[in-house]
Amino acid sequence: MGQKKSIKVALVGNPNTGKTSLFNQLTGLNQKVGNYPGITVEKKTGLLKLSAEIDAEIIDLPGTYSINPTTLDEDIVLKTLINDGHEDFPDVIIVVADVENIKRNLLIFSQIKDLNIPTILVLNMSDQMRKKGITIDLEALKEKLKTEIILVSARKGLGIDEVKKAIVNYKELSTSSLANIKDRIDSVFFSELKKTFPNNPLYKSWLLITQADNLDFLSVNDRDLVNNFRTDIDKINKYQHKETILRYKKINEILKKTYTLDRTHGTDLRSKLDKILTHKIWGYVIFALILFVIFQSVFDWASVPMDFIDSSFASLSSWVKTVMPPGMFTDLLSEGIIPGIGGVIIFIPQIAILFLFVAILEETGYMSRVVFLMDKIMRKYGMSGKSVVPLISGTACAIPAIMAARNISGWKERLITILVTPFTTCSARLPVYAIIIALIIPQKRVLGIFSLQGLTLLSLYVLGFASALFAGYVLHKVLKVESRSFFVIEMPDYKLPSLKNIAITVLEKTKAFVFGAGKIILAISIILWFLASNGSTDFKNAEEIVKNELKDSNLSQEEFNQKLSTYKLENSYIGMIGKAIEPAIKPLGYDWKIGIALVSSFAAREVFVGTLATIYSVGSDDENNTTIKERMAAEVNPETGEKLFNFPVGMSLLIFYAFAMQCMGTLAIVKRETNSWKWPLFQLVSMGILAYVAAFITYSLLS
Amino acid sequence: MKTTIANLKVGEKGVIEDIALENIPLTLLEMGCLPGIDVELLQIAPLKDPLYIRVNGSYLAIRKETAQQITISKL
């Protein structure tokens, strides 16, 4: 068998042109999503089998309007295409263009063409041509653009085979340039540039000197030559603008002869829908209704699979205990690893459902209208209209939500969004809220319809959003970060969402959670298990010590076991930690057992319930079927003799969990996204102080 | 009559005359917002900002502060 041949293909094009749909069509589920080293732009690659001998490795470069590197995304595209030694440097480039907006899409095409790499132009959404009144003289356009052009409908799967064929035959494609930037901007300057780098395409040399960040691959000598041309940056910027204008002139000339658009055919679906969806009253009403439906569904639809996951993992744990020989490893498996994995899996339903909705809103084009509606409001709080997506996503999990803040262009607006997103009530807070509310709020109805417990939960959600906005407002006033925010968003056409695209998005976001937070939650569960099942010498000799102490009293075996377990817990490592912090948390109304749960929650909030379950399961044998809630309700404060989880303590805990930054997964993501430990530490400390003070005030006022 | 995009009323059109290049993103130029191109104001957000425009076949929303940097002559 001979060596398999692999063709490298890069997909380039404007956002909203269906580039990703084409990528999905070509690669199906053979995709890998990673990050570019050191930065936070997603890198998507996929494999396409063209024949028994030939594979294509397809890389979906970020959607951009040009390859002038003014954003992180453009920087990636430029970096990949400018350096023929780059690991992703393509053999052939596919420029994906929206047939309806061909003029704008040809700008990046004309830039790519001038790099003299074989290029295929794919005109997507060609099934819409007749409806929109578009006619194209394809042969003439091919000749003028000096390239192969393929009409495609990525959503309907039309034209995909032609694209594959063109990839196989990429060597036949022309590599000649399109625009002549040399004579029409400044012939002296560009002749000089050509003379300095005689072996480069002129446009490539020009790209090198328009920016200084992507020159690492050049020799020191070449870098100096480049920098010699960079003495007058203003001139370069002016030429960049001129270049754009020139390219558009050229494109207009070409399209005049080859492309016609009969406007009378255009439907006015866009303007009709826009009138309602961005209406000053109805726009907000509809958005509020959509949010309501989303949250309702997240809770309703997710509860069945969540209960199922919960009980499955519980029975798996006890099954492991019965079939495996007792010992350290069995304990680790049944009390550490299995509950740990269960604690990750249980959030998948809510996260998947939430991102299903977010993906639908984005695919249909509605999300851009929300950004348009909300921008002015969000700016008061130091954010942008684009911050709405992270804040909504934050109600599932802050980790994918903070990653969604990437497409906010101004650094200050993006930073504030990242910093305040953890205030929104994420699904990990929910089990904590649920059990405490059940303990301290009576099952009464207000006005006969609203459940008091439900209203309390709703207030906590409102508190989450309100504190996010308030924190944004404060940060907006306080943070001295130099940043200009240029807000330009496209308002795409309304369209029906593609199932395939949505499925892949949901899968990706869920994976981001499982591998982002999951690893940490699992690791912490194992550490906790270790800390709870090991301890000082008193812990190891617990049985004899307790026996010795109680040798005169007449205790049943059951009562003895209870005493023993309590003694063990107190002397385990985790018990020692809990006792050590007890003085600090006493003003909030908590005892050392809650202290243990608080400490373990610093890994991830939902561990609170699990930890309390472990702590209070102490002493209860298997036949004793009381729930965690009943055990917590029965817990008595030894100093006062009253119930431990009374109203003031419960409220103080709710407030503490609403504000505290107790999620290592989020801290790790914030570190990655802001590229420094400064901001996650700032979050940890400031939210911690806020939580402590607020919980202290709550407890003091109520008790 | 010379004015800026920020002063158009909904439904009004103009031709771009001049752009304060140092104050607007290159992206906007790259989307085809260039001198000589027609621009139409489609909608204004409920709180008077951002503005929803059509330019060069693209539908865009830009903030008022950016719109003020683009001089047009009204059609």
Keywords:
heterodimer; A: 703 residues; alpha/beta; Rossmann fold; elongated; B: 75 residues; SH3 type barrels; six-stranded antiparallel beta sheet; 43% strand
Number of domains of chain B: 1
Oligomer: heterodimer
Q: Largest sheet of chain B, order of strands side by side?
A: 1-6-2-3-4-5
CATH structural fold name of the largest domain in chain A: Rossmann fold
Structure annotation, total helices of chain A: 32
What is the annotated CATH architecture of chain B?
Roll
Main sheet: strands, sense, barrel of chain A:
7 strands, mixed
Largest sheet of chain B: 6 strands, antiparallel
* Rg of chain B, nearest Å: 11 Å
Structural class of chain A: alpha/beta
Radius of gyration of chain A: 31 Å
Mean pLDDT of chain A: 85
Q: What name is given to the CATH topology of chain B?
A: SH3 type barrels
Q: Give the CA-CA distance, first to last residue of chain A.
A: 80 Å
CATH H-level superfamily title of the largest domain in chain A:
P-loop containing nucleotide triphosphate hydrolases
Q: What is the CATH superfamily classification of chain B?
A: Ferrous iron transport protein A (FeoA)
The first-level CATH class name of chain B: Mainly Beta
Explain how this protein is built.
The complex is a heterodimer of chains A (703) and B (75). With 703 residues, chain A is an alpha/beta fold. Chain A folds into three domains: 5-264, 3-Layer(aba) Sandwich (Rossmann fold); 282-482, no CATH class; 520-702, no CATH class. Chain A is built from 32 helices and twelve strands. In chain A, helix 5 runs antiparallel to helix 11 (233-258). The longest helix of chain A is centred in the middle third of the chain and has 42 residues, at 282-323. Chain B has 75 residues and is mainly beta. Chain B has two helices and six strands; from the N terminus they run ββαβββαβ. Chain B has helices at residues 26-30, 64-67, and strands spanning 2-4, 13-19, 38-44, 51-55, 58-62, 70-74. In chain B, strands 1-6-2-3-4-5 form a six-stranded antiparallel sheet. In chain B, strand 3 and strand 4 (51-55) form a beta hairpin. The N and C termini of chain B lie close together (8 Å). Classes of the chains: A alpha/beta (703), B mainly beta (75). Strand 12 (488-490) of chain A pairs antiparallel with strand 5 (58-62) of chain B.
